[in-house]
Amino acid sequence: MKKVLVVNGPNLNLLGVREKGVYGSETLLDIAKAVNITSEELGLETDFIQSNHEGEIIDRLHAARGVYQAVIINAGAYTHYSIAIRDAIKSIEIPTIEIHLSNIHSREEFRHTSVIAPVCAGQICGFGKMSYILALHAAANLNGYIYS
């Protein structure tokens, strides 16, 4: 069974409370439940984590080596400036899918750039909770793809 690590970055623990006009009213727990249901349907095993701490995210990515066959990451604001998370993704050599609930390309200019995108297999953004579901389908079909 393919194992997938789903990583959620800063402030995502406040989903359903913060900026409902951007992120909707569903909580991170609602998303985790949907991820679990879809994972079972696809024959995947997922671990779903959230941290507001860059170092903890990096530690979890490092620990993923040899355990997971894919990573899905919503790095939140770290997407736009964390070279440390970028380097962790690159060094673990596990196919990683970058996701976002909102369309980062239609928001503030500083959100248009992702420093992690070049080391990810792909990026899915703008579909709310469905970004996670679409990423699970992609993860199920990656077949060992690592960024080029």
UniProtKB/TrEMBL annotation:
Superkingdom of origin: Bacteria
Active site: Y23 (proton acceptor), H100 (proton donor)
Residues the record marks as site: Transition state stabilizer: R18
Gene Ontology molecular functions: 3-dehydroquinate dehydratase activity
Top EC class, one word: lyase
Catalytic activity, EC: 4.2.1.10
Alphabetical GO biological process terms: amino acid biosynthetic process; aromatic amino acid family biosynthetic process; chorismate biosynthetic process; quinate catabolic process
Coiled-coil parts of chain: none
Pathway: Metabolic intermediate biosynthesis; chorismate biosynthesis; chorismate from D-erythrose 4-phosphate and phosphoenolpyruvate: step 3/7
Swiss-Prot/TrEMBL catalytic activity: 3-dehydroquinate = 3-dehydroshikimate + H2O
Keyword 4Fe-4S on entry: no
Binding site for substrate: N74, H80, D87, L101, S102, R111
Keywords of the record: Amino-acid biosynthesis, Aromatic amino acid biosynthesis, Lyase
Pfam families: DHquinase_II
Known function: Catalyzes a trans-dehydration via an enolate intermediate.
Family: Belongs to the type-II 3-dehydroquinase family.
Self-association state and partner proteins as the record states: Homododecamer.
Protein name: 3-dehydroquinate dehydratase
Classification of source organism: Bacteria, Bacillati, Bacillota, Clostridia, Eubacteriales
